[in-house]
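Fold sample X.
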Amino acid sequence: MGFIAFLILGLIAGAIAKAVLPGDDPGGIIVTMIIGVVGAFLGGFLASQLFGINVNEKFFDLATWVSAILGAIILLLIYRAVAGRKTA
């Protein structure tokens, strides 16, 4: 998958993760986009290591989208835990 497609996938995955886990997050849309892109990378890495799924080949593959969204959700939860501790 190309770099631009990976960025688009990450941005959409971040938006979906934010929709699944609504709430007040420290940071704005930029932080959400970064979380989505890094979360897509994290989800793809975990899917390849745990299940042997190569998510880098097809943009419209269900495994690619599910792993990107789950990675973004995991990263959003970690970000909320870390950022929440600093402000409290």
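Fold sample Y, listed below.
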Amino acid sequence: MTRSLKKGPYVEERLIKKIAGKKPQETGLIKTWYRRSQISPEMVGFKFGVYNGREHVEVLVAEEMVGHRLGEFSPTRKFIRHGGKMQKELELKKKEAEISAAKSAKADTAAPAAKK
């Protein structure tokens, strides 16, 4: 559910104080735990270290991000891959194809050298 237009966007006051009067090039990484804070136009160009529960993920704020939340750019879960028996078989076939292609390429380069 979106926030009421009457209330306006929620931007953490402490974040605004940290960037007030500073230039993005001079300021380094600004660490924050305020994932729920919306990105305002004043934040464009700054680097924020947004905490994801384990580490601070570096987020460089661009113009397209204005209106979004800081937490959207710092994922809390790490996707590894879908697995299973079928996936392993596909990977094995791919690996075998790469090996055979490498062998044939090696044989092709070795054959002209032997004729000389």
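Sample Y note: The domain at 13-73 is CATH 3.30.860.10 (30s Ribosomal Protein S19; Chain A).
Also: The chain has two helices and three strands.
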